[in-house]
Amino acid sequence: KYDAIIAAGHAANPPVAPSGRRGRPKRTKAHNLLLRLDNYADDVLRFATDFTVPFDNNLSERDVSTFSPTRRRPPRPGERWRFPVT
After folding, report:
1. 21, 40, 49, 84: which could form a disulfide with 70 (CB 3.0–4.6 Å)?
2. Which region, left, alpha or beta, applies to residue 57 given φ > 0 means left and ψ of -120 to 50 means alpha?
């Protein structure tokens, strides 16, 4: 069923024809998404069969990124103290 949906997407969003200019032709955002979903189908659908795999990658991204606190600066004349959102 997944392959049929991807095939229908490819039929609805064909690749852009070359314009005769040098280099490779630009792809649309929908075509890029279709190619990514087609190439990484096993990874995309893994969360449907393996319930230990999270749907998104937020926790892993948070673990890898470094903590960078924002500095508070004194308010300018006529301005109130603002607390940065972390």
Report:
1. 84
2. alpha
How far is it, in rounded angstroms, from Cα 5 to Cα 12?
11
Query: Count of residues for the chain?
Result: 86
What is the reported pLDDT for 19?
Answer: 77
Residue 84 class from Cβ within 10 Å (0-12 exposed, 13-18 middle, 19+ buried)? exposed
Cα separation, 46 vs 79, in Å, equals 51
Q: Token digits for 63?
A: 């673990």
SS3 83: coil
Alpha-carbon span 9 to 81, nearest angstrom: 51
Each residue's pLDDT tens digit, 36-69: 988 988 888 887 788 887 777 777 777 776 666 6
